Amino acid sequence: MARGQIGTNVVEAKGLGLTFATNDGDVVALSDVDLDIAAGEFVSFIGPSGCGKTTLLRVIADLERPTTGSITINGMSPEEARKSRAYGYVFQAPALFPWRTIERNVALPLEIMGYPEAERRARIARTLELVNLAGFERKFPWQLSGGMQQRASIARALAFDADLLLMDEPFGALDEIVRDHLNSELLKLFARTKKTIAFVTHSIPEAVYLSTKIVVMSPRPGRVTDVIHSTLPAERPLEIRETPEFLAIAHRVRQGLHAGHSYEETV
Amino acid sequence: MSDIRESKAFAVATVLAVLLVVWYLASILLNLQPQLDTYARTAAPVPPLPQLLADLWSQAKPILPAPHQIVGEMWNATIGQDIASKRSLLQAAGITLAGTVLGFIIGTVLGLLLAVYIVHNEAANRSLMPWIIASQTIPILAIAPMLVVGFNAIGLTGILPKALISTYLSFFPVVVGMVKGFRSPDQMQLDLMRSYSASRGTVFWRLRLPASMPFLFASMKVGVAIALIGALVAELTYTSGGGLGVRLLTGSYNGQTVVMWAVLVIAAVLAAILVASVGLAERLVLRNMGAQPA
Amino acid sequence: MTLWQRTLAIIAGLSALAAAIAVLPQLQSLTFAAGLLGALSLARFVTPLSFWVDGALAVLAAVAVLTGLDQPGPPLWSMLIAMWLFAWLFIDRLANAVASGRLRLPGVGLIVPVAFGVTLLVLWEAVVQGFNINHVFLPPPSAIWVKLSAPDSIALLWKDFQQTFLKGVLSGFALGTLAGLVVAILVDRSPFLKRGILPVGNFASALPIVGIAPIMVMWFGYDWQSKAAVILCVTFFPMLINTLAGLNSAGRMEGDMLRTYAASYWQSLFKLRLPAAMPFIFNALKINSTLALIAGIVAEFFGSPIVGMGFRISTGVGRLDVEMVWAEVAIAAVAGSASYGLIALAERAVTFWHPSVRGGRA
């Protein structure tokens, strides 16, 4: 797992397309997507449901196979990247195993990847510390709040130290207050760990607040309509969301979303 | 659009075909040694394969009859037999079916009433429910003969004692399923009814009963299947009444394996018909209630 | 108290009073005292009485009934009705107290079903003895207990239990359950087989498989091996379909997650899918524990050595030795409930995380 240099591309996609065959005919989930994610970037994918943002993330994770185009992760095919455990994936729900304690949930990928016992212990302690869950090692998931469960699932994705973190609407099910808190925690974590993060969301403020780059997508067929490089500083207190600079970027994102929608108002 | 090899019917048909082939092979292997012994006894040479197979499949009491022998026996004992005749398996099946259905209906009604009572009465919930569950860990089929004899002792004969065994078995899934079903409306729905200040009766008829329908049919399917088992086992003791169980017993006394298998297959067909009828009723009711077909 | 409870209380008190008056000519002090105390309970309409008083009155009335069984007549019947209603009142009020959380005592949840069971037993005994019901129809519990505790029948019952339960049922249950589990895991690897076998297995578990007992007796002889074979067939299908359903109950998301870890088939089986299947597997174990015992006993009706619970039941029926039959049934009931209870305990320990066990929301 070579640590990507700043500036080199972790993900490179060219002309990516994906068509699902369903009983109602073919559905074009992704069409002609070009995308680069450089090392150390925080890239958000935003768009209405059905725009293919989750599908794109799943293609990067080798959970779906593209039907056209090419994609590489760290120069490898998605499958090779998956087999070399190049990324951690955080799902929409915590997906913690209810029969495992928090620490054993975090240990799960480490067990599967064959880390020795002592190493596992050290990594569990470190990642739980990172997401502020130290002291909850012996609790079961159902004994924790939704926000804490999602933090545990982030710890699980961080445990094996992949440089790339794929997050699929990880905070979508949480209430706004918890979400704000986790967003700023995530930014701190991003600053501390220097990971590359690909983040799917349908919240404009969330995308603008977190990202160094925002990819706006639109549905039918799923495609990229705008790519916005954020001009916000790396240090972002929550109050930054009321600055004119922030609102200007949010405005541009909103326009991008509307542009994608202009001829599909009925949907 | 979808490949036929992807379909469920094709997969099921394949599995059934494989089972059939395995059955034929097993019937040949299991019956071979006795056949060879017969040849040896009569000092006859082992004939060529076609004749050997013909001999194998015409044994009077094979260890495992081949499927076509069973089908042949079923044909002879049903279509080929006067239905009034004691040897008609159709008649026997009718007797068993009558006991099963009567017992199942009583059991379902009893189960429904108990479930309504349990859902509405805390004392019943706490005192009855544990015993209802315990009643099923009691191998009640074991006392089927006892009950039949007991009912005979007080002059209760005919179809009813048998039906009551079926009742005892089939009321259980209905009680358990319907208690769950009547409680399946969530708190929000109950609160809504409360906000209308609906009476317990209204809540039951407008909310609990409609919500419990999927549970009712699921438990009725289980109930009707075990009601059939109850009737069959009751017949093992109450032999004068006739029925499939009696035919199974006499078949086992006389070593008529082909008859026994024919009885079992007919019992299986009966089970299929019963479960399918409940399934049909389910589809009709749920469609009228506007449910999505599963 | 609710209207219903008031009604119960009035009738119970009046029945007790009637019993006390009716017993006067016979000078039977216990029934008289119980009746008088029961009648005094009508004072509850002046000053409230605890439900424990109702419980005590029910016990007192039960003792009066059981000791007075040799003299059936109006006092006995009045007392029996009073006993029944006091017990009902006690159970009703206690259950409501427990449900509303007013009463928090360790083990109080057990009192309600136990009180109900004891009431039934007393009613059974009193009705059978008092009305002189034919023992062939229903022997009184006391007669069954006498049979159960007689030294020579204990030896016999123990031998039957060994033959039927320890040899036939346990081995058949273990084999059928294990076979169902292993076949399910194998079938689960192939989507084609899964599609084909699931409907067949579902259908098979609705069949009266016990019916193959005579054939198994023919194949494997009269001894316990043939019973184990029947039980194997009976327990196989519930385990197969439940395990298949359980293995597919793990969420898609969890499956995707293990894929992102590049987990092997066996890793995802042991770390995700088998644990997720445990509630289903235990469901099958519970169903099977009942089925196995029934099948083991019924199979003996088709032929057995001269030992075994099913053998004893069928010969007992023939000789009208009903007490022996009911003694076997009592043993079977205890064995059945104990197996079920053991499995339920194991279930609680293994699937502690499941919402239905931990009692929380999903």
Terminal Cα span of chain C: 36 Å
As a percent range, the share of strand residues of chain C is under 5%
Low-pLDDT ranges of chain C: none
Low-pLDDT residue spans of chain B: none
Query: What radius of gyration of chain C results from the CA coordinates?
Result: 27 Å
Total strand segments of chain C:
0
Radius of gyration of chain B: 25 Å
Helix content of chain B: over 70%
Quick overview:
The complex is a heterotrimer of chains A (267), B (294) and C (362). Chain B has 294 residues and is an all-alpha fold.
Description:
The complex is a heterotrimer of chains A (267), B (294) and C (362). By secondary structure, chain A is α/β, with parallel strands linked by helices. Chain A has eight helices and nine strands. A six-stranded mixed sheet of chain A has the order 5-6-7-3-8-9, sandwiched between helices. In chain A, α3 crosses α4 and α4 packs across α5. The radius of gyration of chain A is 18 Å and the shape is globular. The N terminus and C terminus of chain A are likely disordered. Chain B is mainly alpha-helical and 294 residues long. The model of chain B has no long low-confidence stretch (mean pLDDT 84). With 362 residues, chain C is mostly helical. Chain C contains 15 helices and no strands. The longest helix of chain C has 38 residues. The chains are: A alpha/beta (267), B mainly alpha (294), C mainly alpha (362). Chains B and C meet through α1, α5, α6, α9 and α10 of B and α4, α5, α8, α9 and α12 of C.
List the main descriptive attributes of the protein structure presented here.
heterotrimer; B: 294 residues; mainly alpha; elongated; C: 362 residues; 78% helix
Question: Any chance you could write out the topology, listing elements then pairs?
Answer:
The complex is a heterotrimer of chains A (267), B (294) and C (362).
Chain A: E1 9-22, E2 25-38, E3 42-46, H1 53-60, E4 68-73, H2 78-83, E5 87-90, H3 102-112, H4 117-130, H5 146-158, E6 164-168, H6 176-193, E7 196-201, H7 204-210, E8 213-218, E9 223-229, H8 244-261
Parallel strand pairs in A: 3-7, 3-8, 5-6, 6-7
Antiparallel strand pairs in A: 1-2, 1-4, 8-9
Helix pairs in contact in A: 3-4, 3-5, 4-5, 7-8
Chain B: H1 8-41, H2 49-56, H3 67-77, H4 89-120, H5 122-137, H6 144-153, H7 159-182, H8 187-195, H9 200-237, H10 244-254, H11 257-288
Chain C: H1 3-23, H2 29-40, H3 51-67, H4 74-99, H5 108-130, H6 141-149, H7 151-188, H8 191-204, H9 213-220, H10 224-247, H11 252-260, H12 265-300, H13 309-319, H14 322-350, H15 355-358
Helix pairs in contact in C: 1-2, 1-4, 2-3, 2-4, 3-4, 4-5, 6-14, 7-10, 7-12, 7-13, 7-14, 8-10, 9-10, 10-12, 12-14, 13-14
